[in-house]
Records
---
Amino acid sequence: MSTLARRALFSLLGSAVLAPPSLAQEDGPLVVRHALSQGQNAKVLSYEQVVLQLLLDKTVPSHGPYRLEASEVVSQNRAFLQIQSGEIDLISAMTSAARERQSLPVRVCLYRGLMGVRLPIALHSRVAELEAISSTAQAQALRTGQVADWPDTQILAAAGWRLERLPRLATFVEMLRRRRVDLFALGATEVYPIVDAQPDLRVLERWLIAYPAAFYFFVSPQKPALAERLRKGWDLVLADGSFLALFERTVGTQLTRARLAERLWLRVPNPDLPNETPLLDTRLWHPLVRSRLHQAEGR
């Protein structure tokens, strides 16, 4: 080997050793196989995708490029089995102790705790009757529909609510129309686009159901580097205000319409909320969630 060739080889090897490992892209862009679609509403899906892209974009300088790949929509229980096995890399959902055992939770709530603030949905013809509810005991006696594999079902069942378990979200409209259930409840940040598409349904305006809850990104245990990258992204977007701006831009109109502060809050405990939930980090929660739920429970 000539002297010139040896110098070129040593120069190349030196560059490889000195290159920051976080910037190395041995196999090209990071591929993130996600299942963010919950089969319910395009606006909800779009928000969660945009948050994910925001976190990944913020970490491109430190971690390199990425590519998102959408997977088939499945039930939440099935999605967590796929996460656990490594079949997919990332999903978003409400947390529970069991779900955190199956995955790597990235403990920043995409909805600032507002997925636990549930607005009741009823037939238009029954609004006057159901708006008269004034206590938790009255609401518990109603037949409330909930999707069987959602954590909400376990939370309400543990508190003694009368539940009708539904196999999937799409069935709740027909269950209301057939009067198989009296009401169905959805999160304050998701309910209006869904109900507005059904002319005979209404979102009740005088009361709501509320429990401490967090809606996270969950990562496969086989992808710890992805979880760490997302945590770094959250640190950046919470510090520079870009997440809060996105949140207000995306769901602010729905929250204004919901008039949460004017409603009666029927509080329900959440015995399955993991102890690791960062309830004391005020950056992560909506002010009403902190004052009406966390502080009311002494958290």
---
Amino acid sequence: MSDGKAPRVFISYAQDSPEHMAQVRGFATLLRRRIGLDVALDQWADHRRLDWSAWATELLTNADFVLVVASPAYRRRADGQAPPDEGRGSQYEAAILRDNLTRNLRAETQRVLPVVLPGRSVEDIPAFLMAYSTTRFEIPEISVRGVAGLLAAITGQGPYPMPERGEWRGGAADDPLSPGTPWVAHSTGVHRAGVLLDGVRYDNSIVFRPREPGGTGFVELALDASYGRFTAVAGVPDDAAEPFQVGRFRVLLDGRPRAETTATLGKPVPVELDVTGTLRLRLEMHRPPALAGSHPAELAWGDPLLV
């Protein structure tokens, strides 16, 4: 709800038995006390004389969500298979819900939520709520965890929100290391640039050119388990001031080394790695201390790609 108020929820059910009524009351109490929803239930309003039809009509019309609790009696009454004097209240409520769905199917499908409590069956959902072609909410246990799926439908906040869409690149592989995509962390001397590795141009590369000798260049990215394969070319740029340097390259997935290689000028090395399920990727490059010489490192990951 955008205005900060708790969603107003009405529970429509049939009084099948004292046990079923107690289960519905426990369910409603959880939603109101533990979740904080503004829940209305007839059992909490029977301490005074009411026009029950007017009471139900107002809630069925104005509640943000209506939870229909599936049970054999509710289905029988909602499907028109019960005699007129059986469960008049649930027959009346189901008739209004059917009318609302006919009036605005799309909106009411999102507002009227069929609920299957523990011990009940999907077959207990009334036919007009289309148990098999629309979403239903099966509650495995009456607990905060048990109502998580239902709460997602009410709040519009599911456990797996859709990520923001990146820039369309005409069907080319997704490249989170390209310009405009932030790094989680990186060392000094590391930047994005185009490089030539053995005569081949790599326009979206990660280049390490520190001002002083020594140290390791690195960059880290959050993958959020969204990719399956990493590819790049590790090498010494063709314009390196010191042509005889040796570069060491390493890939870490979630803090664990998964690939290491050595490259020299004119001999870049392709790197390909399975990154399925990886949360964080770290790319490292440095000159071995014994071979560092007096010049700073000049190393590059050529066009690192994630797909």
---
Amino acid sequence: MQVPLGVPVNDPSKVCKLRKSLYGLKQASRKWYERLSKLLLCLGFVQAQGDHTLFTHSTPDSFLALLVYVDDIVLVGNSLSRIDHLKQILNSHFGIKNLGLLKKFLGIEVAHSSKGISLCQRQYCLRLLEDTGMFHCKPAQTPSDHHFRLHQDTGPFHDDAAGYRRLVGRLLYLTTTRPDIAFATQQLSQFMACPKACHYQVAIRVLRYLKGAPGRGLFFPRSSDLQLLGFSDADWGSCPDSRRSISGYCFFLGQSLICWRAKKQATVVKSSSEAEYRALASATCELQWLQYLLNDLHLQCSSFCSLL
């Protein structure tokens, strides 16, 4: 690294040699992940093939799963003694901070009950409404008008293009627990380069919809079958500008919604059948990845996976 200001040096061409990684360096996160993964592998953990940030450890009487996001770790398992033992090992190597039962992770609020687990981003949503000045707005019943298709309008440009991009980016992260705004956000993200005033009004409509139920999210019941069920659909030639189709799919694990997506197809298709096949192919790739992930977690579906 370069010599910090205030440190006397005779030769200005010399640099400092780091003995350990520091925060702020581009190599720091990679070195941290390399050291953590090496320790976990030495402890008998297996790195998942479907997601390299997931590590699992299985014995005849216990199972542990550890998920890493930079320096945030989620640890789950069916043996409290094994979990406590792993926490002690991690603390001896890195000095971790134990936050107890998972209640919040990357802005996602987690609530536990006897019936199941619920995920939402209520605080994130309320902060978004407050930052955009829509905290006291009148709620809307739907995120968008299904009779209106966004397109490259000839109207005036929005006066704050950077603010529009920030707003759409925050809405994209909100779709982590809000699949009901996934399609509307996908439509808004097409005009990040040169947003018009009408596009911003549609984004305001999404904010008004969020005001009606900022705490809405996902619920995962504890009594649910381990069966993958997927749904795929396509809207043929729905883009007014390019006439490309839009693919959409969602997957349920039992009664729990675990995966969804809305995305414009890469090419123009000649028929609705071709659009449906392309959407089905995209959903099949996602289904295959979900099966890999379930295998890494040592979970077997109760019946064959279905894609409709």
---
Amino acid sequence: MVQAVTRARRSRSWKRTLIALAFLAPAAGLYGWLILGSFVRAIQYSFYDWNGVGEATFVGVKNYTDIFTNTSKLVTLLHSFELMVFFTGGTLVLALAVAALTGHVARRRGGDLVRTVLFLPQVIPMAASAIGWSWIYSREGLVNQILDAVGLSGITRAWLGDTKTALVAIGFIGTWALLGITTMMLSSGITKIDQGLYEAARLDGANAWQEFRAVTLPGLRREIVVCATMTIIAALASFDIVYMTTQGGPARATMVPGVEVYFLAFSQQKVGAAAAMGIVLMAVVLLVIIPLQKLSSKD
């Protein structure tokens, strides 16, 4: 009797498993075809010299060696890491400050307005934001108007047209674009921290900075890792901001791997070289992100 009941339960369990697999199969097949299939083809193309139309020529790892021996392509990768200073470092510092300072506002009247204003950059299409920032940074734009008004007309310039300032200007655009979502995530994390920890810190005589360092920061470790992961990927894989503002110029001063892949594939018809650059970019992202995920998983 017991064995019969056990067999019946196993049979029902297998049926449920098969039904679940049947429902998952279409989505899994589509994912495998579109994502994994494209990834495998990209790896294949990276070993060929191909213009996308004619006959492909096998070149082995030449496309990869060109990336690491070509100074201009190495600088392209370096630009992504420079953008991380703004996209990740600047954004996290500002987001932590804003989240800590406005935490009490979110629980009172006006909190919805604060959240809406902070989240606004995420709602605006990046293409529209890039065009707006191009005007702001132009010779007659808002930045130069402010500098003229405060008596600093001597340093005005076309900020996106100067090789010394173009990448920094794009970095500030990225900080603006990512500040809202990171602040929202960190503010949400702050609300989950036990308020008793803050009360205990105050009883011990801790000031606001000591509370932030001893209670808020440790309590936001997972949220900080998530925000860092998101902003690092945005910096390393940046495309839309750079393409819409400078297209990698002036003189490749803002060229990043995403834009480089686009020009290699569609302007220079070097599909193999573009695929190799994309694979290298993916590897760089993983090398940076995986240690962060391990940090987040630690208790």
